[in-house]
Amino acid sequence: MTDPFLKRYRIPRQRISLVRDGSVLSNWKVFQNSRQIYEFAREQFYTDADREQFYALALDSKNRLIGVNLVSQGSLTGSIVTPAESFKPVLLSNAAAVAFVHNHPSGDCAPSREDRECTARLVKAGRILGIRVLDHIVCGWSEYFSFADAGLLDECGEEVREVAADFNAARKGTRETTKRRIQMKKKETKGRNPVKAKHSKTIKAVPTGKNTIKQVVIDLITANSEISNEEMMAAVKAQFPKSAFDSRHAAWYRSQARKGLLTGTPIAIPKQTKRSDPQSQ
Asked: Domain tally for the chain?
């Protein structure tokens, strides 16, 4: 009888690559506006198209065209477009940005409700993937509609920021939202101990008193000049649980005591006392 735990399965190992399929001629190597994208798409894709076709134009960081891909081809009234299929060739092209174009065989370039919803999903996917969606252009017979020129990409961005808050896409929120965040941050940081700053190079000593951290440290060092940073931290934390006293403060107090600036007279303190290994004993 075969042991089921010894049974092994063969899983296929896959590799994904981008295959070059011909080329197209363009009057523009770098796209600077929506008119150039429309002229390129109309000349290359939609001269005699009788069905709706959706293309992705992959661009580099300088908006240079590095590849084109037919994402979807539908019927006279529409085509099925998903973010997964739209960004697959863009990711394989190592593109930094993308411009989407599709045609309306009827000749009317006015965007439909489905076009707006599709654009919102594509902008959301681009934000998550780190690929800039420069524009989505609807091509008609003699004119076009640009979502970027109409300012609708910003509206899509607002929707994306609300839905994809977990992906930190809300860096450019409205003025009211930004103002509220600043106020909340001020309330959180108000009253905090400045010693908590990570990049503070100097640490001010605590004023002398009976119930201060400084006095506790003086008593500890006076009683045991070889006290370690860990022991000092534990003793301070025991009396001041909410204190931010850490190894940096302990090292600073040790150096001050060594120079005689803590108690008035220099104290012979080693730089760091190492704890003995209990196993070696």
From this structure: 2
CB 262 within 8 A of CB 221: yes
pLDDT digits (tens, 9 = 90+) for 243-274: 888 888 888 888 888 777 777 777 777 666 44
Sorting pLDDT into bands at 50, 70 and 90, what band is 117?
very high
The whole domain housing 252 covers 201-259
Whether residue 38 is found in the same domain as residue 169: yes
Residue 137 corresponds to which tokens in the numbers above? Answer: 């252009």
Task: Annotate 165-187 with three-state secondary structure.
Answer: HHHCCCCCCCHHHHHHHHHHHHH
CA–CA dist 128, 83 (Å, integer): 11
Q: Quote the CA–CA distance of 133 and 113 in Å, as a whole number.
A: 19
Asked if 45 and 170 sit in the same domain, the reply is: yes
pTM of the full predicted structure? Answer: 0.53
Q: Confirm whether 75 is domain-assigned.
A: yes
